[in-house]
Design brief:
2 domains, mainly alpha, Arc Repressor Mutant, subunit A, about 200 residues, Tetracycline Repressor, domain 2
Length: about 200
């Protein structure tokens, strides 16, 4: 099957998926070739075709294996801190996020328009992140850090839409927003969800 001597089939698969993620991030889905991925993994193209019949199947499996990496830039793991402060920090990062951090997600989004299986994997990964954000907002409401007159699910969906939108805006070469102005706007936005609460 084109495995490397002394390497288990599972190790070969992990190596292949790691290589696929790196190549998709750099070259994009359209620009990535099976030969490049094989070279990056140190296996033959035949080894890839022994496991996957199409490049789309390989991207689906790579996204399954690396969904945390692909979606972490949207909703990074939270720390135990005031939820309003955490939301402000996350929102401020949207204006100056490194496009490389979302490259895999951007490629998966584009490819998912043509591949139903990939769309399902991506929807599940983003849905999981959205649920984590809703739970974070609920925690802030329960602690009295955020007002409880806003649905955590609606707020989490808004955050997902803003996060995905910010990723797309970065690809347009629009003039950058002043970081201080952006942070001030985010602080005001989050403050609207914490007005009247005790800190």
């Amino acid at each position: 099957m084109g495995r490397i001597a002394g390497v288990t089939p599972e190790e070969t698969r992990e190596r292949l998926l790691d290589a696929a993620v790196r190549v998709f991030e750099v070259e994009g889905y359209g620009g990535a070739t099976v030969a490049q991925i094989a070279r990056e993994a140190g296996v033959s193209s035949g080894a890839i075709y022994a496991h996957y019949s199409t490049k789309a199947e390989l991207l689906v499996d790579a996204l399954r294996a690396h969904k945390e990496r692909a979606t972490a830039a949207l909703f990074p793991p939270g720390q135990r801190t005031n939820v309003a402060v955490l939301l402000t920090v996350l929102g401020a990062r949207l204006g100056a996020r490194d496009p490389a951090a979302t490259a895999l997600l951007a490629e998966a989004l584009l490819a998912s328009r043509r591949d139903a299986e990939l769309a399902q994997v991506l929807a599940a990964a983003l849905g999981e992140r959205e649920r984590l954000m809703a739970a974070l907002i609920s925690r802030g409401q329960a602690a009295g850090e955020l007002t409880d007159d806003v649905s955590p699910d609606a707020a989490a969906r808004f955050a997902l839409m803003v996060g995905l939108g910010s990723m797309l805006v970065q690809t347009l070469d629009l003039p950058e927003t002043d970081p201080a102005d952006w942070t001030a706007f985010i602080q005001r936005l989050i403050a609207a969800f914490s007005e009247g609460t005790e800190h």
